[in-house]
Amino acid sequence: MATYRGTTILAVRRNGHFAIGGDGQLTLDDTIIKSKGKKVRKIFEDQVLVGYAGAAADALALLDIFEGKLKQHNGNLTMSALDMAKEWRMDRNLRRLEADMVVMDKSKMYLVSGLGEVIEPDDDIIALGSGGSFALSAARALYQHTPMPAAEIVRAALAIAADICVFTNSNLTVEELK
Question: DSSP letter string over the chain?
Fold first, then answer.
């Protein structure tokens, strides 16, 4: 996996609620160039949530490709993620894109990478980015020891990550599927 500096993405599903969130910090080398960036989106008629880490232009290009795959596969998240990862890995130009994505709908969630990986988590939580391991740890603790809904877990865990990771801030964007 890539080493990220400047992004934390966290997705949680719980009791029929689905949430993905990200911090707003965008960095260039050792400089914060934006503190209120939006790295999570609802796509495909608000049926799919996506969060990305890596080079912003690369991630946005991949987001367009992924949405096209969703249209091609009639919203089938699994087929779309697999098809995109395959194309991403095989295409000489796409292979150079430096970003990873978390994608989720009401039934599945995956981490999709330029290495050709499509990873479904063992539990109902997935994270990526520089503060991803901090957010993942916090989310797992909150999930196991509180009755908090998905969106609250995402907000709280990202806030904890922002207190620990210097490349994560507390300007959060959280999107939900209900």
Answer: -PPPSS-EEEEEEETTEEEEEE---EEETTEEEESS---EEEETTTTEEEEEEE-HHHHHHHHHHHHHHHHHTTT-HHHHHHHHHHHHHH-TTGGG--EEEEEE-SS-EEEE-TTS-EE--SSSEEEEETTHHHHHHHHHHHHHH----HHHHHHHHHHHHHHH-TT--S--EEEEE-
List the domains of the chain with CATH numbers.
Answer: 8-173 (3.60.20.10)
- Per residue in 6-64, pLDDT (tens digit) is 689 999 999 999 999 999 998 877 788 889 999 999 999 999 999 998 877 788 888 89
* pTM for the predicted model, two decimal places: 0.93
Angle in degrees, CA 149, 175, 66, rounded to 5: 125
- 123, 134 contact by CB (below 8 A): no
Active-site residues: which are they?
7
